[in-house]
Amino acid sequence: MSDTTEVEEAEGGPVRFMQQHIALDYVMRVSPIATRFAEGLHRGVILGRRCPSCSLVFVPPRTFCNICTVAMGDSQELEVTDRGMVTAFTILTPIQYHGQQERQDYALASILLDGADGTVGQQRLLDLPLEQVRTGLRVEAVWASEDDRRGDGGGAMGFGFGSAITGWKPTGEPDADPASYAEHAL
Amino acid sequence: MRDVAVVSFAQAPTSSTPVSDTEAQMLFPVVAEAMERSGLRRDEIGFTCSGSADYLAGQSFAFVGNLEVTGAWPPISESHVEMDGAWALYEAWVHLQSGHVDSALVFGSGISSRGDLREVLCLQNDPYYLMPLWADHVSLAALQARAVLDATGKGERDLAEIAARCRRSAVANPFAQRFADVTADDLLAEPYAVAPLRTGDCPPVSDGAAAVVLVAGDRAREVCEHPAWIRGLDHRIEPHYPGLRDLTVSESTRLAGEAAGVGDRPIDVAELSSSFSHEELLLRAALGLGDAVDVNPSGGPLAANPVMATGLTRIGEAARQIHDGHATRTLGHATSGPCLQQNLVCVLEGDRS
């Protein structure tokens, strides 16, 4: 708890305000599957798992299929490519507040990797003027140097690429047919 | 009242080793087991309700992540309570009473080991008077324990006897975390956590989950040999601020017990959410449970205390006694808030043979 403030005059008499800041510390243990995914990223490999029931490929991998509710183990593991297509995007204009690192407008996209059945969200698009960002755009991963590839401990909603992939740049291929990502578009 | 039964129950084993799984990963096998034992297909579940608190795991929207274990596609009808899963069971039971659905999946879960419970549970206090003091739940329980001992003439040995009995009972419970063949003397040799409560009078920090399936009417008899029928279910709340209450009695438990019909016929087994040993004294008195009642044969919360699943586990354990044919009339109790502020009582009965 911080110190109390100076006495201030207020209607009804002098008052003193008390500030109270609450902090809670947590120790997050990284789940084994998140560790394995991070080890793959360190090698420059994106791992997924294929559901033995519905055959959907989940990237990042999961311990169970959340549609079929069947367990997925290491035997369902596979590698997917680091190429895919933009299915949705947002152009962000950063508001300047304390701690804000962004200074210029930038694009975040949902990307459907080739061979995967779900998109990965919040991915930074690089090397492309913002007015050219579009759905169907073919992109490939821009990997950090091996020493800088750290996984992401993960949260309630899963885990991501951590610092391993700095963003995604256009491949120069023709745009994907809208029918190929229609069910992933918002 | 519509006949509704607990037809299956599953729980996660608790351990002094903190889980590294996410909450959803911890829940997945538990919900899968409860579903498998129920004999119902997932698409037969009319309503799903869960209880958890994101402050425990320290992750916002962990409760949404937990829904992944239900296979919520196509979309399902579901709800969540920021309380023990026992209150999720209450909501599901009300839903079943409405007649709109015939079955429900209920689960509760919590990962307490990631934070410091004595800090995290401070947040359940009022923000003006008790929160700034960081009045933690163990210290508040100790205040109540002192008041109970003073009012009843009982002593620390009586508390140790309760705690020792719970730990001995827990030896037979494969899901228990703290179990041993100990005596009151052994526990009286332990240091105080906060006087008059010794470490043995306080629950362990547990990560865990529990799930039950509720089914209404004759369908329950089709899927379960010995359905545990919910014959009474009530919960009552006392003032939030402990200083406004008489801490030597649990009035809300008494009222809930009366409304649930606890005293109408003898109770064989009572599973009480007495996470501190003096709470068993309070709850036994409030519910009118005599010495003939087998209290917490599982070991109770002193053996494993997965916050947000502890109360649902009590109802599940009480139901299991009927499923296994060991008892015909049982009781599950859940609590929430500091010093037994809120209490829920569920009376279960088997079919009369």
Brief characterization of the structure:
Helices cover 6% and strands 28% of the residues of chain A. By secondary structure, chain A is mainly β. In chain A, the strands form 3 sheets. In chain A, strands 8-7-6-9-10 form a 5-stranded antiparallel sheet, with no helix packed on it. A 3-stranded antiparallel sheet of chain A has the order 4-3-5, with helices on one face.
Q: What would you note in describing this structure?
A:
In chain A, 28% of the residues are buried. Chain A starts with 7 loop residues before the first strand and ends in a 16-residue tail after the last strand. In chain A, 6% of the residues lie in helices and 28% in strands. In chain A, the strands form three sheets. Chain A has a five-stranded antiparallel beta sheet, with no helix packed on it. Chain A is mainly β and 186 residues long. The model of chain A has no long low-confidence stretch (mean pLDDT 91). In chain B, 33% of the residues lie in helices and 20% in strands. Chain B contains twelve helices and twelve strands. Chain B has helices spanning 23-38, 54-57, 62-66, 85-97, 117-120, 137-152, 156-169, 184-188, 218-223, 251-260, 277-287, 310-323, and strands at 4-11, 47-51, 78-81, 103-111, 192-194, 197-198, 207-216, 228-237, 269-271, 294-295, 329-336, 342-349. Chain B has a ten-stranded mixed beta sheet with strand order 3-2-4-7-1-8-12-11-9-10, with helices on both faces. A two-stranded antiparallel ribbon of chain B has the order 5-6. The longest helix of chain B has 16 residues, at 23-38. Chain A binds chain B through residues 1, 18, 20, 22, 24-32, 63-69, 71, 154-158, and chain B through 18-25, 28-29, 31-32, 42, 54-55, 57-62, 64-66, 68-73, 113-116, 119-120, 123, 131-132.
